[in-house]
Amino acid sequence: MNIISHRGNIVGPNPGKENRPSYIDCAISSGLDVEVDLRLIGGELWLGHDTPDYKVTIQWIIHRHKNLWIHCKNLEASQFLFSYKDKVKYFCHTNDSYVLTSSGHIWAHDLNLKLDGNCIIPLLNNYDIFSYSGDYVHGICTDYVTLCKNVLRDRGIL
Fold first, then answer.
1. Which of 94, 108, 113, 124 registers the highest number of CB atoms within 10 A of its CB?
2. Are 34 and 28 in contact (CB under 8 A)?
3. Gap between the Cα atoms of 6 and 138, Å rounded
4. What does DSSP assign to residue 133?
5. CA–CA gap between residue 49 and residue 158 (Å, rounded)
6. Is 139 helix (H, G, I), strand (E, B) or coil?
């Protein structure tokens, strides 16, 4: 099971650093995959959850492609990354219960669905982590990587 850092976070949300390239690199250097938010605006790639905050290049993305799960925040980003579908993992959704990623995994937001080893789920708060039933999934995306790993190890899941 993969534990995926949500926007670079490891020990809880940090809105001032989330999606910042150096913050993402710290999480990757810790051996983690990272979910990032990406937009394409005016031909330029931008990281940022609600707004385009950090300009990056496709070379920056490709250099980290093995560790990035890219949440496309606009259609243009999805269309652009389609040209790189064999090199990057990306998905696009807004309010969907689940979405198919370019790697063939299912990013599922509704934890009441029947999950399997192909799913990636968000456990973004302490309640979700402690109440997680332990269904085998491909990955868990969380702001609390350390806590999540400790809880899953204690339960014999990880």
1. 108
2. yes
3. 15
4. -
5. 29
6. strand
CATH number of the domain where residue 24 is located: 3.20.20.190
Averaged pLDDT score across all residues of the chain: 95
Q: Tell me the one-letter amino acid at 37.
A: D
Give the pTM. Answer: 0.95
Are 97 and 113 a contacting pair, CB within 8 Å? Answer: yes
Amino acid at 122: P
Could you tell me whether strands 33-41 and 2-6 are parallel, antiparallel, or unpaired per DSSP bridges?
parallel
d(CA 148, CA 39): 29
Domain assignment of residue 41, given as a range? 2-154
The 10s digit of each residue's pLDDT in 124-144 is 999 999 988 777 899 999 999
Angle 139-80-122 (CA atoms, 0-180°, nearest 5)? Answer: 20
Domain count, the chain: 1
Q: Residue 61 contacts by C-beta under 8 Å, 6 or more apart in sequence?
A: 38, 45, 68, 70, 84, 88
Q: Within its chain, how far is the Cα of 95 from the centroid?
A: 16
